[in-house]
Amino acid sequence: xxxxxxxxxxxSGAGGQNLPFARAVEADGWLYVSGQVAMKNGEIVPGSxxxxxxxxxxxxxxxxxEAGYGTEHIVRVGVWLDDPRDFWSFNGVYKxxxxxxxxxxxxxxxxLMIDGKVEIDCVCYKAPEA
Length: 130
Hints:
Blueprint: E1 5-7, E2 24-27, E3 30-36, E4 39-40, E5 43-44, H1 49-67, E6 74-81, H2 87-98, E7 104-109, E8 118-125
Helix pairs in contact: 1-2
């Protein structure tokens, strides 16, 4: 069994609050990425579902890159939309990023804990190096 590696949280979240979670945790080739939102510099990026989806996915991809993973390693994605009427606009942006390597996906309506339109998490797998 390999060691567990944690990728730290942002120094502060919305409203300057410390967030008690890791952005991602890696163990035995599995990478679990915490839910990402359209946040930059501790603030939600204003805009439409299209704009917020792009920022959210870019935040997710930055974590994958830091951990040495890519979209081809994503096996499952969880999506929470604040408004289900945003699904088709969200899906158009999502397809731009995951069209070549579509993972399994769940997409549900949920009121988000922050004032955003979308949250995305994922689980990745990459065979551990021998």
